[in-house]
Design brief:
14% helix, 13 strands, Glucose Permease (Domain IIA)
Length: 229
């Protein structure tokens, strides 16, 4: 755990939620989308409908409500999209650097900390985030950002850069496959130390050769969520 990650971990001893706070931690269950999960072989992961069946089956099997996971997980599901697939294996973006929270479309999304809207955008490439919001957080000596991807189109209507959201305030709702890049409904949640020159977008999937940089710049969001699964 690097210095920044340790700092984030100490912001709160309690779980900071981005979904309905009444849902118990025990109802968050792991979803494994890595090639080592042979259960995926039975599903056509290039199809959002088929992948949705897998996600829902896994959640129900574990008596859960929310599917959770994916930080630094290598995934083959991105091969369906030219947005991620590259000519060489070295440059292929297939390592997920946020966490995914799989739940129903239109689910409410909440700010885990006080923040202001840094930027927002509809990233409409096939396999991309769809509507996305990035919040800026100023906390003591640190400035950092949180990204919320795969939202509904309504989430970015009438939004303004600089708009203030308090911790626990609803900021958005989840989109469905028709607007979210063609995925089962879920929130991509990511912490970003240095936003660089990005606005309304930031890589959520990286290549193996970029991984060291993103491990430093995008720590595990569970340092805030504190989900024990």
């Amino acid at each position: 755990m690097n210095v920044f990650e340790k700092y984030l971990n100490q912001i709160s001893t309690k779980s900071l939620r981005v979904l309905d706070a009444s849902i118990q931690s025990s109802k968050y269950v792991p979803i494994d989308l890595s090639p080592s999960n042979k259960s995926l072989d039975k599903f056509d992961v290039s199809s959002s409908n088929s992948l949705s069946k897998f996600i829902n089956f896994e959640i129900k099997k574990q008596n859960g409500i929310i599917g959770f996971g994916g930080y630094i997980e290598t995934r083959t599901i991105y091969q369906r999209s030219k947005h991620f697939k590259q000519l060489s294996a070295e440059n292929e973006r297939n390592i997920h650097i946020g966490v995914d929270l799989w739940t129903d479309a239109n689910a409410s999304i909440f700010a885990p900390l006080d923040g202001t809207v840094h930027s927002f955008k509809n990233n409409s490439n096939y396999g991309d985030y769809g509507p996305t919001i990035i919040l800026k957080h100023v906390h003591h000596e640190y400035i950092f950002y949180t990204l919320y991807g795969h939202l509904s189109l309504e989430s970015i209507d009438n939004l303004k850069v600089g708009q203030v959201f308090r911790a626990g305030e609803m900021i958005a709702t989840l989109g469905d496959a028709s607007v979210n890049g063609d995925y089962p409904p879920h929130l991509h949640f990511q912490i970003i130390r240095n936003i660089q020159n990005y606005k309304g977008d930031y890589p959520g999937v990286c290549s193996k050769k970029e991984l060291d940089f993103y491990l430093e710049n995008c720590p595990n969001p569970n340092v805030l969520l504190k989900l024990e699964i």
